[in-house]
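An example makes the point: we let one protein speak, the chain in one-letter code, the fold tokenised, and here it is:
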Amino acid sequence: MELKVNREMIPVTESILDELQEQSVELDYVLPDYHPDIFRIIGCSCTPTICSYSIGAERMTYEMEAEIRVLYCGAESNQVQCICRKWNVSKTIDLPRSCENPIVHIQPKTDYVNCRAVNPRRLEVRGAISVKIKLTGERKQEVICDIFGLHTQLRKCTVSYAAQKRHVTKNIVLNEEMELGSAKPDILQIVRCDARVQPGEQSILAGKLIVKGEVAVRVLYTCESDGAPGMEAIQFPIPYSQIVDMEQIDDSFHGMAQIQVVHCNCKPVTAKDGTLHTLQCETELRLICTAVQSATTQLVTDAFSTLHPCAYTTIPLQIDQEPIPVQSAFVCKTTVPGGDSKVEYVYDLQCRVKNINTTLQPQSGSIRISGMLCCNLLAGDADGMPMMLEKEEAFEVYTVSADAVAEAARFHGDVRPADCTYHLSADGSVSVTANLQLDGQLFPSAQHTCLSQLEIDESKKLIRDGDYALKLYYGVEQEAIWDIAKRYSTSVQAIMEENDLTEERLTEPGMLLIPIVC
């Protein structure tokens, strides 16, 4: 009788790159003639974003852009002036090896940024940006799923895995014109604009992934209110709807899309009468689309022959399962103390998060999320003098994600402020409540040790310690029937039938009859 071995190729995820890059930021800027001289710097910010990236066989390249904004006041007015400059850099990384179906996660963050006035017409900005890069790929692993012949006994486990994956990255640009409304004053200068994605419907239809939602755009601008310098904020939604072509997907696939804001630019539009009462907004989004088809198979984790001696080798495998979307909302509160002058007005509140760490907690089936909430308040005192107040508050939360949280699982996600509110106290301090939103994907995976090779010497027979058909054995509680059968070169089925057992583990200690089979 010949030994027949059935093999199957399954995809296995492997880590290709996991590193942190640091990039210094240096900008020297001379003010144009239409800007007043610098009298007092209010604040400075640096917002980095990944514009594009590409992955080749040997290297990876990405383009990063940082928006640097400096707020200051001139000597003759309390009106806030805004300088906005773009700083770009291109980086190339050598990959340790090539990979199939690469998936990259790139997260830039500002470590620090400082600004000083070299003279009334010249600014100097220095800072640092760190970029966290994780790249995974796939490889095909041959596994044994069944064995026949030579009185072979098998121990199998059924596994579910991501059999096919489709990945598509698509950038879209949204253009919208927004009228301010009669109640809003004309625009003098835009101080800040940002966009937050509010995901909507995501579904697969006729081999395409349909992605819908809207982007909430918020703009802060300077204006004249009753003849005095002032600031106004306006918020408006921009809907988006995209049909993303993904090769050979159907209803058996599960699709999802992660939406990222690449940039959001707003500029005032001059009307025929010379007024600036309309905003032209251009927002670029990156749609990172994934479609996964799951399958099940059986892996042979152990084997022996009841008649012949055998030898085998095993390999450890980490098998990815279908990713699970994880969404959770939580609240972080802090109090921003007042400055040297008592705060009378709050013009703008900007919240962001940094130093996000996620840790899987398999014991409780949860994900631990920690980080820092950074609050920037643009405020004014009784004389209308603007000031920038800053506060950082550490937070730590646990979000439950059921049984999929395991030691071998991976998680990728972003934490962003959904909305922020404030309350101005009588003493000039400001209480801030930030509603934070977690959006990410949990990649469950199971670790298995399975057979990669089995050799049975059919020219020899097992030597037993005597000529008998039954043997007595005292089993202990929770002992596996497989271990007993392997020890005495018999079958699990024979032991269970002889002893009227219904479970493959002993529920209580006791004497067993071990039948010897050939």
In short: The mean pLDDT is 87. The radius of gyration is 32 Å. DSSP finds two helices and 22 strands in the chain. The longest strand covers residues 276-305.
